[in-house]
Amino acid sequence: MKNIFIAFIVLTLGLLAYSTYQGLFVAPTEQTMGEVQRIFYYHVPSAWTAGVCFFVNFLASVVYLWKRNAAGDALAAASAEVGVTFCTIVLITGPIWARPVWGIWWTWDARLTTTLVLWLIYVSYLVLRRFSAGGQAQVLAAALAIFGFVDVPIVYMSIRWFRTQHPSPVMGGGENSGLDPAMLHAFFWNLVAFTCVGIVLMVLRYRLQILEEKVEATHAAAALQGDAR
Amino acid sequence: MTRATLLKDLRMEWRSKDAINSMLFFALLVVVIFSFAFNPTAEESRRIAGGLIWVAFLFAAVVALNQTWARELRNQVLDAYRVSPAPPNALFLAKALGNFLFVVVLEALMAPLFVVFYELRSVGPVWQLIVVALLGTWALVVNGTFFAALSIRTRSREIMLPLILFPVSIPALLAMVDATTSILTGEASPDFWLKMLAVYDVVFTAVCLLLFESVLNAE
User: Fold this and answer.
1) Could you say which of B167, B188, B214 has the minimum Cβ distance to residue A143?
2) Which residue of A132, A142, A157 is in closest CB contact with B154?
3) Do the beta carbons of residue A74 and residue A206 sit within 8 Å?
4) Quick one: which of A28, A58, A133, B122 has the most CB atoms within 10 Å?
5) Model confidence over B13-22: pLDDT tens digits?
6) B119 with B184: CB under 8 angstroms?
7) Domain span holding position A86
8) B151: left (phi > 0), else alpha (psi -120 to 50), else beta?
9) Count: domains in chain A
10) What DSSP letter does each residue of A10-24 carry, written as one string?
């Protein structure tokens, strides 16, 4: 099992190297946006990976509430942290691209706002985990995870209505109505590579979480036996 | 069970008036501070009042929500609920209804003040505002009661509630503010937002009822 995982890490690194090369050197430069368009190869795969992580978080939370297994909770914790990381990357790379292309850093458009709210929800999830202790922390966190996940489509719907009523001046400049095949190639490999990075990070964080819980349990057992080391 | 708990909470509140007094005073302070901060004319205030009103009520509601479960912690009342055969959702509904009544009373008392301080005059029909208030208050209170039950189990519980409640409440708040603004200015139809609030209420009431038992029994 361990060997398979190491092989997977190596594969991920290879994929990442290949996709970075494709994105930075092979894919053609975009006509109107220029070099800055290349951030697209990192921005969208990060968003996708964050989405995958949050979905895993939701599934793991449901499984935890149902089966009450430590694995479900550890996976939920791991996926939320990795998801927030990738979501942060999305929120940082987005404005970097938007500034030269749209002329502004930020607009309260449906997708941007939904991503921001998503980020807020999962940060509050991490805060809740940090501030609650013991066995109940896991139940509380799992409950909040389900609330957060249910909230996302509602947020998207409401913001879309909110903003499409008042058309914003920067609606143009959106990407791909038909992507160049070379761009699609680079984009696809970045998507695969980022997903693999997300999986690697989640697995590592998951194992760390399990180890942490074991250490805590050992300490608790030692304290119970009056074994003050 | 729901009725017994609800009546008990209402009676306690009637005698002490803790929650309603602190909420009222808090909301009053917010109103005064906002009017200093913005100093609006009648036309402007019609545009921004939706936001002001709901932000004030949201903050004030948090004050009451934080006290929801606090009094049940004393003398291990919550543990007694847990071992009693009464259905947990009955307890939850009683708490949510109690909070709903407190916040609605607060809104009824505060609404005239907003009219006086901000020279509000609604262009759209006033009865729609009442519908928005009822749907919106339930949206805040049902999640707030649930999240108060979460935050009571954490360290620094008073600060925890807004941290976890506000992100999830963003769509409800947006719907309330926009519905109120479109009624006050009479420029747009609030129908979409009313439907949206109704959907939000139904969805999250269901989620709360589904999950409350696990949260109450969380060890």
Assistant:
1) B214
2) A132
3) yes
4) A58
5) 777 777 788 8
6) no
7) 2-167+180-224
8) alpha
9) 1
10) HHHHHHHHHHHHIII
